[in-house]
Give the backbone structure.
Amino acid sequence: MSSIDILSDFHSPPEEKGRTLRIYTPDACDGDPDGRFPVLYMLDGQNVFNHPASALYHTWCANSAMDRLIAEGSLRPWIIVAVDSSPDRFSEYSPWDEPAVGASGRGWLFADFLAHHLKPFIDRTYRTLPEPHWTGVMGSSMGGLMSLFLGKAFPGVFGRIGAVSPTIMWAGGEIFRLWDAPTGRWIKLYMDTGDQERYWHDSMFLDYVDAAGRFHNHLKGIGMQEHELRYVVEPGAFHNEQAWQARLPRIFSWLLEDARGI
């Protein structure tokens, strides 16, 4: 059966702190001792799995979704590495300051940890397919913003980007300026938002629908092609784990399908 192992206090040298990792391995890791497997890194790891040690309320149930898609023959088995966030999530998931909520932009440190410390550890420890077209990163809200950042800053590491309800408007839309051209490499980029995702946070009005739509048009404008990019507006969906859980199987089916054109 698939399993989830939890590593507590895994050291992040750039951030000078410990992080909790939750690592899902599919049944095939034991059933196929010579097999190698692609890896998806998911942010806000405490909210990712249907597991007793996860968040108390709704989670993405990513392990259940992956198990079902594998059993149906819809998807090859993937390893999922879920990385917990900390109470200072706004700062660690943003490379830029956001004065409206007093967040300092320390996302570069987290990105350095994921690309240059965690991924090499996972590739050493597990039988992975290490190439970027077999390596994805996914998150929601600020985690979606960070996933977009990682995909552009490290295209030689992460070839698949899942930006679920991303906080595009953060820091005055700096993500538009970062994505000033395509990565120039093989890529699959999924982005979505629920059509009910408009609300106030402190003094910030967060219109996810408008911001995601504008960013989608921006990505098309810089030359991203239809086979590389998928954008979905989910009817009736709000900004929460319950909504993301409901659409995760469809996200996995497109984002994690076997690589073509390599």
